[in-house]
Amino acid sequence: MISKAIDKAFCIAESRGWDKIYVAVDIHDTIVASNYSKTSISTTFYPMAKKVLQYLSRRKDVVLILYTCSHPEESVLYSKFFESNDIHFDYINCNPEVENHGYGCYDKKIYFNVLIEDKAGFDANVDWEVVFDAFQEYHLRSYSSTE
Fold it and tell me: What's the whole-model pTM score?
């Protein structure tokens, strides 16, 4: 379940003294419904996707990574589309913040803590609300522990 993955990511970050987590997000059938067109990008958001991604874009403890198989020219169009909707991805298909080390090689597989992807079981029609609630829960929990 995606909420468990988010909670686990924050628990690991806290235990290791990290100040952020990395969230990789697919586009098609995750953020927007696929249109299977070679001439235009899909711009039909799933319920709550826009709101949640805007929210995550503002969080200082989240690095958003656009994780897509879109062609490079499509990725540029999507990047502009998301920016125009106040959704800001830090990277596209890469994570230069995490380098190779003794127990991980990230030359071909990028590092992320949470994957939001329909092929990984994410149901875009209902799970965006679950994602929002999980991040809100963590925010409230961490805020109350600092008082």
Answer: 0.91
Residue 17 CB: number of other CB atoms within 10 A? 6
Q: In what order do the strands lie in the sheet with 62-66?
A: 91-92, 62-66, 21-25, 114-116
| pLDDT in the model for residue 142 | 56
DSSP string computed for 40-98:
S----BPTTHHHHHHHHHH-TTEEEEE-----HHHHHHHHHHHHHTT---SEES--TTS
**Per-residue confidence band for 137, with pLDDT thresholds at 50, 70 and 90:** confident
**Cα of 10 vs its chain's centroid, Å:** 14
User: How many whole angstroms separate alpha carbon 66 and alpha carbon 82?
Assistant: 10
The residue assigned the tokens 């590092």 is: 111
What is residue 99's three-state secondary structure? coil
Assigned CATH topology for domain 2-130: Rossmann fold (3.40.50)
Is it the case that residue 82 has pLDDT exceeding 50?
Answer: yes
